[in-house]
Specification:
Rna Polymerase Sigma Factor, Chain: A, Arc Repressor Mutant, subunit A, mainly alpha, single chain
Amino acid sequence: MMVSAVSTFPFSRREGEEAPSSGVVARAPERDARLRAMVSAHFEFIWRSLRALGVAPAAVDDAAQQVFWIAAQKLDAITIGSERAFLFSTARGVAANARRARARSRELPDDGAVLGALPDTGPDPEQAAQRSQAKRLLERVLAEMDEDTRTVFVLFELEGLTSVEIAELVGIPVGTAASRLRRAREEFQLAVTKLQLQGGRP
């Protein structure tokens, strides 16, 4: 279950920690306010992104907290206005580490690792079964994409971003974003068709 970190993220100084210099102390309220604004504005986006980038449901809350902890440590280096791009870039790194760790542990992918956050619509057992199958299919297809292709696909198809917005967020030219998206959609359609021909089930 997705949890809000606005009130739980540890912004303040730990008990017993030595106070910083007076110059930093004077800026502490401003830093805290900026961190809280970042969490409030971007936590759900980062949480969904981590899920879509392959972080297992059981690990996604900790992964999201890690992203914002890194942001807190590097806050002074984050240009005002580029917070979302920094957080997403950090999330990609955290997700990559999580996938490698899961591969090393030989843990099987969780069903619904991408769409599990979305509620089922209605109590119809047939609809629920179809939805579960679609979740597994999407997760399997995304797992076969390389990281760059998967990233643009997730941002476009699941987050609804345009090629221009994707380019700005990822830090690539618009033409590159459009090219990767085209390739991603082709790979997705090909993979879905292949899986369906193999029996119609992921």
